[in-house]
């Protein structure tokens, strides 16, 4: 019979497959495994829920980080997973959601680890925000954590506004803004919050795909709006633009498919300037962090161009005192025909522009970091593992146990197999990051632009959607 610990690991990786194999192989029953290791699962559950300043989960996994040094940095991903009502706490409220604090290496090799779970009665971060910030401070005492990335929960908006205000009212050039953001902090925590590009993409896609919304590129000219039919006509992207199911708001692939350089090119080529310019900033953000074949200078050019477009709209929105969206477009009988937006919701532009400044600074200082770890996608992949371990059940009790199973299995695998098999590093599209070749140096001039060229491109694009020279220069 195979060793019990190995069998328990096999069962955790694939419960259904394990039970099928028991029909052919001499393997312990599920009940036998849990008699042997059930207490271990409970121990791991208590460790990940612990609020100890020693951060017990981190202490257990530190030995698996290769070449950990004072220059080694992590980022924290935060997201929530929902389940059904579970148990009553001391306040007679029901635990319904779990917030995961996920530690991800930025510039060195090592595992991503869920170091802490915070229980809550709902999926909104507002009521546990202080706990989240306190735990971030604990992590900063133990290791280098310069960045946090979050999902689109509105509870974090106030934090992003603090970082936005740190740069928006300054009178300095672009590089001056980048330098200022390197020293930004929230309250007494010297850490930068970066919006998740995929969640921003989901939010913007919602504005264009679902009925009853109108995106204006000019605040008082409804003819200068983003037309979804033109995107459908020239960008053949299927469900990414056509699927209006409520569940489509959660699809991670749709924003990546929609905000794509090929779509922007097709739209601009056919004179669809409102649509092309609207797609461009987020498209450039995706391209700058995903297209590692381009030299870093080209990726920085993309970030700067995206920022300039957003900065223009933000400054105009501020001058016009647009706090969130424009006045509704109404029918003759006074009923609302469209909710009107000036490029997007203002908070989304603020989060985008601020995050772009930060990412530019990262590319400038350390372009080799793992940009896949400055999104919450790895956290969502972790939640997929939770559900797999929980055998597709969504009760919070099962998800908590699943988290403990995942940590326990990961710890065992790293200790026994990590030196034998090196896992290939993949990006979200399945590309092997270890085999990326940067384009030849003679092609670089096609992709790298000077500051003057970027400013001229920005001006030309704004002209194309109806802005005049006086508007742009002011």
Description:
This protein folds into two domains: 4-151 and 376-417, no CATH class; 197-371 and 449-473, no CATH class. The protein is 49% helix and 11% strand. It has 19 helices and eight strands. It has helices at residues 4-13, 15-21, 30-49, 56-61, 129-142, 157-168, 174-182, 197-209, 228-234, 239-242, 253-258, 261-269, 273-290, 296-319, 346-365, 377-389, 396-417, 451-464, 469-473, and strands at 73-82, 97-105, 113-120, 144-150, 192-195, 213-216, 329-330, 336-342. A five-stranded mixed β-sheet has the order 3-2-1-4-5, with helices on both faces. Helix 1 crosses helix 3, helix 14 (296-319) packs antiparallel against helix 15 and helix 16 (377-389) packs across helix 17. The longest helix has 24 residues, at 296-319. The chain is globular.
Q: What is this entry, summarized?
A:
The protein is of the alpha/beta class and 474 residues long. It contains 19 helices and 8 strands.
Relevant terms:
11% strand, three-stranded mixed beta sheet, 2 domains, five-stranded mixed beta sheet, alpha/beta, single chain, 474 residues
């Amino acid at each position: 019979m195979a060793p019990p610990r190995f069998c328990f690991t096999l069962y955790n990786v694939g419960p259904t497959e394990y039970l099928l194999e028991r029909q052919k192989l001499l393997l312990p029953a599920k009940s036998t495994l849990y008699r042997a290791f059930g207490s271990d699962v409970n121990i791991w559950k208590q460790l990940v829920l612990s609020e100890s300043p020693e951060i017990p989960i981190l202490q257990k996994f530190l030995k698996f980080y290769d070449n950990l040094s004072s220059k080694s940095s992590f980022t924290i991903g935060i997201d929530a997973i929902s389940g059904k009502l579970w148990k009553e706490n001391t306040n007679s409220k029901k635990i319904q959601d779990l917030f995961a604090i996920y530690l991800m290496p930025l510039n060195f090799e090592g595992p991503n680890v869920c170091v802490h779970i915070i229980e809550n009665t709902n999926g909104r971060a507002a009521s546990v925000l202080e706990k989240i910030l306190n735990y971030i401070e604990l992590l900063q005492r133990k290791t280098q954590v310069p960045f946090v990335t979050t999902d689109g929960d509105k509870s974090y908006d106030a934090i992003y506004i603090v970082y936005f205000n740190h740069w928006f009212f300054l009178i300095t050039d672009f590089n001056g803004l980048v330098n200022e953001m390197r020293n930004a902090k929230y309250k007494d925590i010297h850490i930068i919050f970066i919006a998740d590009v995929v969640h921003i993409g989901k939010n913007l896609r919602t504005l264009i795909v679902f009925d009853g919304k109108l995106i204006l590129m000019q605040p008082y000219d409804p003819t200068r709006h983003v037309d979804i039919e033109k995107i459908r006509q020239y960008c053949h992207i299927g469900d990414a633009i056509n699927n209006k199911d409520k569940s489509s708001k959660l699809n991670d692939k749709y924003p990546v498919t929609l905000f794509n350089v090929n779509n922007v090119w097709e739209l601009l080529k056919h004179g669809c300037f409102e649509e092309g310019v609207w797609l461009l900033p987020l498209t450039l953000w995706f391209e700058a962090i995903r297209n590692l074949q381009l030299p870093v200078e080209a990726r920085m050019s993309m970030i700067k161009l995206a920022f300039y477009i957003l900065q223009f709209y933000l400054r105009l929105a501020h001058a016009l005192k647009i706090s969130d969206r424009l006045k509704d477009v109404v029918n003759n009988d006074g009923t609302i025909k469209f909710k009107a937006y000036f490029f997007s919701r203002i908070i989304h532009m603020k989060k985008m522009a601020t995050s772009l400044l930060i990412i530019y600074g990262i590319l400038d200082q350390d372009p080799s970091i793992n940009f896949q770890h400055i999104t919450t996608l790895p956290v969502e992949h972790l939640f997929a593992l939770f559900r797999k371990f929980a055998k597709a059940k969504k009760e919070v009790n099962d998800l908590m146990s699943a988290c403990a199973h995942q940590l326990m299995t990961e710890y065992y695998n790293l200790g026994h197999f990590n030196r034998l098999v090196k896992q290939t590093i993949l990006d979200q599209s399945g590309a092997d990051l270890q085999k990326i070749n940067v384009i030849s140096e003679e092609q670089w001039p096609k992709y790298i632009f000077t500051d003057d060229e970027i400013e001229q491109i920005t001006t030309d694009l704004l002209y194309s959607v109806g802005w005049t020279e006086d508007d742009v220069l002011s």
